[in-house]
Design brief:
Elements: H1 9-20, H2 35-49, E1 54-57, H3 72-100, E2 103-108, H4 111-115, H5 121-141, E3 146-154, H6 177-184, E4 194-198, E5 201-205, H7 220-225, H8 227-230, H9 241-258, H10 265-279, E6 284-286, H11 291-302, E7 306-307, E8 327-329, E9 339-341
Parallel strand pairs: 1-2, 2-3, 3-4, 6-7, 6-9
Antiparallel strand pairs: 4-5, 8-9
Helix pairs in contact: 2-3, 3-5, 9-11, 10-11
């Protein structure tokens, strides 16, 4: 399982099992470790079936060593198969799914990616990176009916060779396969999530934050003094990736600053801008939920404005100076009495 050489035996056996059960299957021996191999795998599915509805990335190899001894060759080899391999098949398949208006993507992470383990820095990094890729695919596929989730499996497979599993409870791949099957099924109702499956236990894993502590300024000593409150997990933030965890994280953080004693300069500036527009009869704001403007949108909501859903799919981060570029226009009969439109810097 080091990735050296090639053996089509397991893939051929899977094809035989599927066809014996009345299904159809074809094996492709290309490697996910290269972009060309990833494209060839997707093209093989298209050649045989004409479309691609489901993508499950489960390719993996193991090359273990302590971080102080791991070679760059072993480091890259594991990332090439696990993490880059995921992108190499997602990249050609994802546009086809979006165009078709349907798709299911399942990426394989690991408790080694969630929690780490000894002697597998390459594996842990690759499996943690899988979560980030899944989140982005889930976000960008949501409007097109494409769902993407992560399976965090624990099963005794060929990758466990050399490990003493005699004391383990039953944990064959047949206990994990139904979870993957549901995530790949048309009835799957979640996206941007992680499901754990190990020894018959199925659970959800998630990223959470403590509410934390707000101060208008910090010193090194104050961080230490507040550490207990900073780490208090009593009321965690668990933000759904879809539709807006990224924005919600920023909105919640800004809200803590806004509601602190005396407010802050950003709040005062944005509030004054809104007051000036209100004086002109403007009561609608729309645009891209850039981190620099989430605060203004929230203030507008509190003042009773109409906050229109974003109408762009562009990336956030390019409007840091857009306040000076902001334009307002009358849109009677379309958006009420008027609107502010935030203008991208590159427009």
């Amino acid at each position: 399982m080091t990735g050296a050489g090639g053996d089509t035996g397991p893939a051929d056996e899977a094809v035989r099992e599927i066809t014996a059960a009345g299904g159809e299957a074809v094996a492709c021996a290309e490697s996910v470790a290269t972009a060309e191999g990833g494209r060839a795998i997707v093209e093989s599915a298209l050649d045989h079936y004409g479309r691609i509805d489901v993508l499950v990335h489960n390719a993996g190899i193991v090359r273990s060593a302590p971080p102080a001894e791991m070679t760059y060759e072993d480091f890259d080899a594991v990332l090439d198969v696990h993490l880059r391999g995921a992108f190499h098949v997602v990249r050609p398949a994802f546009p086809l799914m979006r165009e078709a208006g349907y798709g299911r993507v399942v990426l394989t992470s690991s408790i080694g990616g969630l929690y780490g383990n000894h002697r597998v820095a390459n594996y842990g990094m690759a499996k943690a990176g899988m979560i980030g890729l899944s989140n982005v695919v889930a976000l960008e596929g949501a409007a097109a009916g494409v769902k993407c989730n992560v399976i965090v499996p624990g099963a005794v497979t060929r990758m466990a060779e050399g490990i003493d599993t005699s004391a383990y409870p039953p944990m064959g791949p047949e206990l994990t396969a139904p979870v993957v099957g549901w995530l790949a099924h048309e009835s799957c109702s979640v996206t941007g999530e992680m499901l754990v499956s190990i020894a018959g236990r199925v659970a959800r894993a998630f990223v959470g934050e403590t509410p934390g502590v707000y101060r208008p300024s910090w010193s090194i000593e104050q961080v230490g003094e507040e550490l207990t409150a900073i780490r208090d997990t009593k009321d965690p933030w668990i933000l759904p990736v879809v539709p807006s965890a990224h924005v919600d994280h920023i909105r919640n953080s800004f809200a803590m600053a806004r509601h602190s004693e005396g407010g802050n300069t950003v709040t005062k500036v944005f509030a004054r801008i809104l007051e000036l527009f209100e004086a002109e009869g403007i009561n609608t704001i729309f645009g891209i939920p850039d981190p620099n403007f989430v605060h203004m949108f929230h203030l507008a909501e509190e003042r009773g404005w109409n906050v229109v859903a974003p109408h762009h799919e562009e990336s956030a981060g390019f409007m840091a100076e857009a306040v000076s570029r902001m334009t307002y226009l009358e849109t009677k009969g379309i958006l009420g009495r008027g609107a502010i439109q935030t203008t991208p810097l590159h427009a």
